Every structure is written in C-alpha cells, then in structure tokens.
Amino acid sequence: MRNTAKITTAVLAAGALTFGLTACGSDSDSASSDTSGPLVVAASPTPHAEILNYVKDNLAKKAGLDLEVKEFTDYVTPNTATEDGSVTANYFQNQPYLDDFNKKNGTHIVPVVTVHLEPLGLYSNKVKSADALKSGATVAVPNDSVNEARALKLLDANGIITLKDGVGNEATPSDITKNPKNLKFKELEAAQTPRSLDDVDAAVINGNYAIEADLSPAEDALVLESATDNPYGNFLAVKDGNEDDPRVQKLAKLLTSAEVKKFIEDTYDGSVIPSF
C-alpha cells in the first residue's frame, strides 16, 4: 500500500495561509542542510504523483532512496510548502509558471531536472471541432497568469484568435487583436476547467487535469499544443540551496531513467511525453 498523503482542500488553504503569515521571514539561505530521513516531494496527483509512486515502488529501494509522496490538488501549495520546508521538493510545474510564482511571491524555488510535457488542449462536450464553435461561444481558460497566456497562445497558434505581436506569458483576453467568432472567455482555477465542460462551449485544460477527468489529450482535444520546442516541460524543483541534496540527486537520476521513460510512454499513450 502506498504511503501517499492526500491533502484536503481545507488543509491546502490552511497551508497557504500559514505560508502567507511566515513568508516575509523566508530567505534563500535558509534551505535545510539536513539530508537525513525520507525525501518528501509534493506533487499533483496525475501524472506527477503516479510517476513518483512508480519510482518509489520499483526503483527507489535499489537506489537507496526513501521517498515519500504528498499529493496536492492546487498549483500554489507545493511551492509554498517547498519554500517553508514542509517538503523538500516538488514536481508539478514548468519554467514560465515558476518564474512568475517566484516573482509574485518572493519565493526561491529552482528547477533540478525536466521530466515530461503535458500538452495543453482545447476540449468540448458540445462540438467536435474548433471550427464548429458558434459565434459568441464561451471558452473557459485557466485564471493564473501563465496558464491563461498559454491557453490564449494555443488558440492563437490554431487560428482561433489572434494575439498582438510580441505578447508573452502575461497575455490576457485584452491582448486579442482578432476574434472572428466573438468568443467570450470565462476565467477559472485550472483545476476547475474540466468540470466546466457542461457549462461552457469549450475549455482549455492543462494536461494533468484532463487526464484526471478521463480525457485523452492525444485523442479528445480539439486542438493540442505541439511538443516541438515547447517551454512548458514539467520538472523536479527544490528551494535554492537544496539542489545538491544527495536524495534529490538520486531522485533526479531515477526520474530521467530508461525505466521511467518507458513507464510514461506505456501508461499515457502520448498524453504525457518524456522530455529527456
């Protein structure tokens, strides 16, 4: 039986509040030097925790790694928990998101090794193609700045809207210069976008949340991000100063092993793509 700790929404909120009260005293030099005990890693349930639990169940013991996985269902608490030392590492995010998070929250999280890509996709319960979206249709998009920009860039890349030239990872609907279908955008927490599919005409959904909702990005998405030169690979991350923790280095090596690559390819059938 896996010793995965599932964190409830109430606990997540409490953890975020606790961090908010203590973050002012946080400093990048305070990264823990204690490398005894298990390596505790915060992760989104799918696919991150699943990949970590594969490592835990099949590879960690032989490598001399005591691994503990804690599951979080939001995109905030894994970083705040890593910053305050509640966990040593996390595995759930990409570089643009981390850069934005560190800037806005004064945190000191750094990447260790990139493991996989989850292509972002546009999904619908009401139409079978993006071209079939009607004028005035409502499209749900994630409400955090990086994933909203990523969603809008996906629609731009597929000719559904046009964004102004040079728009970056802070793009919002106000940056749309052409909107032929007069689409309306509903901003939701990323985890809520799959649940909105019956209430909106389409939704742009992060790969991990799509898989949790029994959607197959490779088969069900109306349009899907290309994996070529994609900057949104998900990585193992730690607080600055913990990169050389021997436990972290062991996990980094295992996460980029041939065994994990095969596990990702066999389990997710193109919906999650190894990045190593």
From TrEMBL:
PROSITE patterns registered for this protein in UniProt: PROKAR_LIPOPROTEIN
Subcellular locations according to the entry: Membrane
UniProt keyword annotation of Hydrolase present: no
InterPro entries according to UniProt: Lipoprotein_NlpA
CDD domains (UniProt xref): PBP2_lipoprotein_Tp32
Principal cellular location given in the protein's record: membrane
Signal sequence region: 1-23
Topology class, membrane: Lipid-anchor
Domain of life according to the entry: Bacteria
Keyword line: Lipoprotein, Membrane, Palmitate, Signal
Family per similarity comment: Belongs to the nlpA lipoprotein family.
Protein name in UniProt: Lipoprotein
Organism: Streptomyces plumbiresistens
Lineage: Bacteria, Bacillati, Actinomycetota, Actinomycetes, Kitasatosporales
